[in-house]
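Appendix B: a complete holo record

For completeness, this appendix reproduces one full record from the ligand-bound portion of the collection. The bound molecule is flavin-adenine dinucleotide. The inputs are the chain sequence and the ligand SMILES; the output is the full three-dimensional arrangement of the complex, encoded as structure tokens. No fields have been trimmed.
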Amino acid sequence: MISSTPQTDTVHVIGGGLAGSEAAWQVANAGVRVVLHEMRPLRMTEAHRTEGLAELVCSNSFRSDDAANNAVGLLHAEMRRLGSLIMRSADANQVPAGGALAVDRDGFSAAVTKALHDNPLIEIDRAEIASLPPTEWGNVIVATGPLTSAPLADAIRELTDENALAFFDAIAPIVHKDSIDMSVAWFQSRYDKVGPGGTGADYINCPMTKEQYDAFVAALLAGDKVDFKDWETNTPYFDGCLPVEVMAERGHETLRHGPMKPVGLTNPHNPTVKPYAIVQLRQDNKLGTLYNIVGFQTKLNYGAQQRVFRTIPGLENAEFARLGGLHRNTFLNSPKLLDGQLRLRAQPRLRFAGQMTGCEGYVESASIGLIAGLYAAANARAQSLEPPPATTALGSLLGHITGGHIETSEAGTRSFQPMNVNFGLFPPLASVPSKKPDGTRLRGNEKTVAKKQALSARALTDLDRWIADHLRVAAAA
Ligand SMILES: Cc1cc2nc3c(=O)[nH]c(=O)nc-3n(C[C@H](O)[C@H](O)[C@H](O)COP(=O)(O)OP(=O)(O)OC[C@H]3O[C@@H](n4cnc5c(N)ncnc54)[C@H](O)[C@@H]3O)c2cc1C
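The structure of the chain with flavin-adenine dinucleotide bound, as generated:
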């Protein structure tokens, strides 16, 4: 018989994606029992294709790995210091991608699944949680992601007394490498950047003349799009993941200043002629047999995608391993609904993690899973955990979700939107560097670089102090 006494010593994590997998790992690492409930393969989402935990549904990139100059690279470094399973599995399965950390998606997911499966404190329950969790689950992390199944989403929406805002995201197509014409395309990373596990020649580049670009933009605009359903017509796009044809609608040159910018690359087949625009493809699997078209998330229908993308020089005979598509995103109005420890104010036994909290991206979702796991484990041990310093990438993202966002909308509609980690979320430096080590003044972009590096250095120092003061002490108690 199930006891009706709340079980706070066992943590229940709902959703075995990026956030839920990391959360379960952190809870178990703190010595607390955890049950991870994942509905796949019994019930699939619109985007997941496998039963693997932490499946990457679109790009295989964890973005920049540069901890000194880039906020997401800094978040990688912080998560590694916190023993992240997601980062450990990504590092073990990386594929070359210039300055980015990209992974073999199947190897990555298999590594996460195996580590969780092998952990004696973790039980994996393959079941959909189709209503609010039973009341006897006293310590729950909900990490069901942007594609949370409808019954659970409805139950949460009712509990929060809000209409969860949904918006559109779109995924990019993947091409078989051996179908790309390398007598037209060439391998090169922008500015020959080497990056982690890279060679400086990691991307496949397809050049376009002005005429080809003009015709391509016209074809994008004319291509048939997937129809909107009634409820979707007023749903806005998230700016960080605009479909390629929506970017084209914003202006004829928009793509040339975005994913198709022709800078930092030289066509070896025709070195004297500068391409007017360039389409890049990034390696998608460890074998190097699949490449995704960078920034080409799309809502064109399948027929239009094949026709229009095959007008790209080098892709005339492209075979697509997966075509792009649209998806829904569900997330809470977290600054209003969650407390500083990611608990639902209306029902504090429910803690949220991942993209549902209004962060955006694989790494950000996993990082919020990480901190939710640490909080839940502290709860289970009747301890409390100070939040990570606001000066860290993790603390600044958490702060944004749980209170940093300022509600600016009039007429009562919420303005909170999913957010990637960025240096704009960090508290300002007490003193901004103005001189180089040799005493000469920093100029122009040097100042921006020095500021980012100072923010990163401060973050890592503060994170180390927080780990020593709070996590090591908690572990010893
Ligand atoms: C189509 C699509 C493309 C995206 N592309 C990118 C990208 O290219 N790069 C990027 O950085 N981010 C991308 N994102 C955004 C986001 O970072 C990812 O969705 C990320 O996986 C979010 O992590 P998560 O753990 O919150 O959710 P998920 O990784 O989606 O994990 C949620 C898990 O919960 C399970 N689940 C759902 N409902 C239930 C239930 N009721 N009971 C039990 N289990 C349930 C799901 O099966 C899933 O395994 C994309 C999102 C989508 C939907």
